[in-house]
Amino acid sequence: MKSLTLALCRIALAAAFLLGALPARAIPISVFSTYNEATREIRTFISARGLAPGSGTTIGAFDFNFSYDPKVLKLDQLSFRSLLGSPDKIAFRTDGDKLVASTLGSGQALSYASLTSGSSNALRISSTSLLEASAGTCTFCTGPYLDELQTDFVPLLSLTFHSFVPLPNIHPQTLGFHMSVLSTSDGYGNPFLSNPVRFAPVPLPSTLALFGIGLLGLLRWRPARA
C-alpha cells in the first residue's frame, strides 16, 4: 500500500511539473491600424501583449490567417519584425496574385507568407523562432535569447493595404477584412492557452481619429475553425 501511495505521489508531482511548464494565461494579440486619407493607404500592425518581462514568458512562434475583399483592398506589402530573431525573409511584396520576398534577413527565425486569390483573398502568415528562450535554460547558449529581445509589448508584423473605396464609403460589409489566430507558442514550443484579439483605437485627431474609431468595428476577429 505504501509503495502504491508513493507511486501515485510521484505521478502527481510529474503531472504538476508538466502542467506548470505550460503557459498558464492568455496572450492577447493587439491590432492597431492607421489610414492615410490622401493615399488611401491602410497600415495594420499586429503585436503580442502581456508577456510580463522577467517572468520567463516569451513568444516563439505564431500562425495567423487573414481574409479581405480584393475589390476593396489591395495588399501592397507585409513585413515581419525581428523580436523573434531576424527572419530569413523580412518583407514580402505583391506581384500580381503572388507574394515575393523582397527583403532577406539572417535566418534567426523562419517566416512564411502565402496569398490565395478568390472572391475573398486568403492570407496565411507564420513565423517560428530558432533562438533559445533564455540564457538560464539554453542548450547551445550562443545567444541572442528571446527574453533579451522581448518585453511586455512585442511587435510581430505589419500589413500595408491600398483601399479602392474612399473613406466615407468604407464599412464592414464592403471592407471584408477578417483575422483569425491559428496558433501561438512560447519560446519552449508550448502553446498558449488562448489569444484574444484586441483592436486599439488610433490616437490621431480629426478624420484619422474617426477612422480609427470606426476601424474597431471594421476589423472583426473570426475564430479559427477546428
Can you describe what's shown?
This protein has 226 residues and is α+β, with helices and mostly antiparallel strands. 18% of the residues lie in helices and 41% in strands. The protein is built from four helices and twelve strands; from the N terminus they run H-E-E-E-E-E-E-E-E-H-E-H-E-E-H-E. The protein has helices at 2-21, 146-149, 172-175, 206-218; strands at 29-36, 41-49, 59-68, 73-80, 89-95, 98-104, 109-116, 121-129, 153-163, 178-186, 197-200, 220-221. Strands 6-5-4-9-2-1-11 form a seven-stranded mixed sheet. It has a five-stranded mixed sheet with strand order 7-8-3-10-12. Strand 5 (89-95) and strand 6 form a beta hairpin. Residues 2-24 and 202-226 have low confidence and may be disordered.
Query: N- to C-terminal separation?
Result: 44 Å
Q: Architecture in CATH?
A: Sandwich
Low-confidence stretches: 2-24, 202-226
Mean pLDDT equals: 78
Counted by DSSP, the helix tally is 4
Major sheet:
7 strands, mixed
Structural class computed from helices and strand pairing:
alpha+beta
At the third CATH level, what is the topology name? Immunoglobulin-like
Strand content: 35-45%
Number of domains: 1
Helix content: 10-25%
CATH class: Mainly Beta
In short:
By secondary structure, the protein is of the alpha+beta class.
SSE order and pairing:
Blueprint: H1 2-21, E1 29-36, E2 41-49, E3 59-68, E4 73-80, E5 89-95, E6 98-104, E7 109-116, E8 121-129, H2 146-149, E9 153-163, H3 172-175, E10 178-186, E11 197-200, H4 206-218, E12 220-221
